[in-house]
Amino acid sequence: MSHPSSRRGFLKALLSALLVFGLAALSQGHGGPGASNAQAGAAFYDYEPALADGPPGSIIRMEPMAGAPLNAHAYRVLYRSIGVHGESIAVSGVLIVPAGRAPAGGRDIVAWAHPTTGIVSRCAPSATRFVFQTMMGLRELVRHGYIVVATDYPGLGTEGPHPYLVGRSEARAVIDAVRAARQLAGADASNRYAVWGHSQGGQAALFTGIIAGSYAPELRLVGVAAAAPPTDLKSLLNEDALTDGGRNVTAMTLWSWHRVYGAPIDQVIAPAAMPAVDALAQECIQSPYDMLRRHYTQRPLQDQFLAVPNVTALMPWRGLLAENIPGTLPADLPVLVTQGGTDRLVLPQITRAYVRRLCAAGSRVDYLELPGVRHGFIGHHSAPQAVAWIADRFDRVPAPSNCPAILARDQG
């Protein structure tokens, strides 16, 4: 049985989530009747495998969406990308183009990388009623005149399962969404883009920075902004398995990687725990109410979950984890990392350690830690700083860095 103080903490977090979600909806200005038209039918995401053949980023189909802020034009899009095993796949997402005339050099692009929404196809953000409200900073990005692209990632919307926390898969989907925007007639997209992501999307943003130069040399990535990115998956699948959030992430990762990579899940999960793991795999995380539901679904895992003391010590899991832990980025690529000071899932000390690695490798990193902010809310709370930081990168303002102070503290 959970301790009363932990239940109070969860309920407090849930009430805060309800407040933040409501404020986000109001701030994006999508309360009108057009907003309900954003929800998609399942047929949009279905495709014959042959349709996926073609240049990554080329558009298979698209349809208009209502409810974008500031009279922007929005489209649900199905575009081509490359899967985990090098196969041709289709990925869904959203493209948002500001109203009005494009600047002389074309519209710059911001790629939004969303946090965890689930690992089965029906959990795609582009299929939900409130997709625009979940893109942190969207209204201000549109106000700046940027095209905003938001991938669902592979296996969300399209046939699953989703390769959850598979960094290069996420990054290819992000970059190919940028390519798709450049294919859109009338968008007048430039070849410059920035990536901004939260949680899982923070990992996607970092991996975008890692592969951008080799995967899409025709594009120019001007900056990477990541809020609470998971940079140490070993902690998420080991130490964090003692918390609600950690059990959720661990269950989803093991379930996904079993299907994506063929890793033996019965090697690491107790048989009695599998019904709860399977149930969690089928639930989406698209509202605070989903968080409440998952809180109760994962309860059996408090008593029996992992069949081994340390998943991260076993192959093939150990090798897969190493493959999906982000390394350092090119030194000339500016980075913004934001972190909640009371995050219990992506721990502040782990994010600080990753920032120190970036600094030691020569990156210019602007690190911002917000006291009292939990994991689920750092994207919302740091969105104003992220938008301003991205705008400066497009305006060619020299990138700030607090690396000297961070490294000096280590030496002291």
What overall geometry do the principal axes of the alpha carbons give?
globular
Helix and strand run:
HEEEEHEHEHEHHHHHEHEHH
Proportion in helices: 25-40%
Quote the average pLDDT.
88
Number of helical stretches of at least 4 residues:
12
Q: Give start-end ranges of low-pLDDT stretches.
A: 1-37
The overall strand count is: 9
Strand order, main sheet: write it out: 1-2-3-5-4-6-7-8-9
Q: How is the main sheet built?
A: 9 strands, mixed
Q: In summary, what is this structure?
A:
This protein has a nine-stranded mixed beta sheet, with helices on both faces. α10 (348-360) packs across α12. The protein has helices at residues 4-28, 138-143, 167-183, 200-215, 233-236, 244-261, 274-282, 288-297, 317-323, 348-360, 378-394, 403-411, and strands at residues 59-65, 73-82, 88-97, 107-113, 147-151, 189-198, 220-227, 335-340, 365-370.
Notes on the protein architecture:
The chain is an alpha/beta fold. The protein has helices at 4-28, 138-143, 167-183, 200-215, 233-236, 244-261, 274-282, 288-297, 317-323, 348-360, 378-394, 403-411, and strands at 59-65, 73-82, 88-97, 107-113, 147-151, 189-198, 220-227, 335-340, 365-370. A nine-stranded mixed β-sheet has the order 1-2-3-5-4-6-7-8-9, with helices on both faces. α1 runs antiparallel to α8, α3 packs across α4 and α10 (348-360) packs across α12.
